[in-house]
Amino acid sequence: MMDEAEFRMAITHALAHKHAAGKDVAVLWVEKKPVSLQVAPKVNAADTNLELPIVRLLRKLDKRPRNACITTTGVPTEACLGMARMCGIEHISYLDKRKLKKVVTERSKTTESIITITNGSTYPDVMPNGAGVWTDDPSRHGLQLLNWFNSQARAPGSQCELANQLLPQQGVTATVFASSGMEYFGLKSLVTDQTVLDNVFMMLAWEMVAQVSGFQSDLKGEVSAVADARSNADYAGHNIGSLLVDEKGNVLAWGFNTNKHNPTRHGEINLISSYFASESVSALPARGTIYTTLEPCEMCSGAICRTVPAETDFRVIYGQEDVNVYETALQRAVKVKIAMTGSQAALASAAMIRSGSGADAESLLVNYIKNRQDAAIRTDKKFKATTAFLKEKSTYKTFFAGARPQWWLYLWDHLSSTLPPPPGPSTPPVGSSPAVPPVLPKQVGMANDLASAEAIRLNNQLDIIYQLVESFMKTVAAQARA
User: CA 274, 276, 282 angle in degrees (round to 5)?
Assistant: First the structure.
């Protein structure tokens, strides 16, 4: 008699022969019953798309299942394993070169065990008249497997009978976000310092979070909830924001969490899916950067590693470390050309913002927000997930209510510091007394500085940038509350 793992694998390959000739399938088992079937193109480790049977299967979930496992005909990729870890799948089984492999997918790690298939195996139980064992490619025995499956499916209530009722699910409908309006932003042409550029885009990612938080603030800084946003909108409160920026400083795509009805719809997953759908591409751009407000989880890390082409330079910069994720694909550097770092962006105090400058900000976002979260946990004596912490009114008031112009102030401080100094007094003739420059009020001196052609040109450029960002943020807010 076959053991349970072999029995399920036989059913899976029979379903592949029935529904997916030349493709791969994945079957979700809950409480030892087959509950859903997904078909996708043959898994190729060199591809960069997310058209994988396990990924498709899990992206159709409406909640995390309990006591669930997956069998598949393809070799699981990092994207598959990461998504399975996030969704609480206990293990994945697949056949690879006469070896039945079982990968346990815990949140903290994955571990693999192997059952070697030999002539003494129970696999001949599925082959009529002792036709032999499975070879490296079970599809060679597809017809025999299907005949065996059909005969077993006659037993009412059996696993085969339940599996025989399954039909492949339709493809996943991606969450497609509207255009950022900054696909031709080209900020790199104005800001040549990469660190400054990184900080600006990280601040913009946090500004996105403010837009989907379900709060708003008036000119006096009073904070209130947006009508109906926190109770009715699917997006409100899912406060992880992500930006995809190319090497020229253009915002190619964006996304935030929409995982109220599906555990796989994190900000980075939505960003990648939206970018692929809107641009009709299947890979992230070379030398691009993802700016995301929280360190990518195991699922998002696997998806990023899958969708960045091999030997391609790419960066991931996050605004807050997530101490609750372990051994992600990015942390393990499964693609060495992808560099992941914490943001160096700083958070200006309210006093700095009131003074019209953020140049002296010293509190790094990546540390400051985490410290505030830890303090809240110590006070309440209760662990609070990052998304829950960021939903709170006090959190919004601390980080977002007065910080709307922060990125602009930071950019102005940097760019204005590069302006040439205003012309000084002319050199007096030899032997004459040196000229004494007139003492001007501070406001008059600043007005003179800002009246230079270079300052006027810079101010005009920043006005355009501000308007583009404002338009983008209105788009974010509208889509968050649609």
Answer: 155
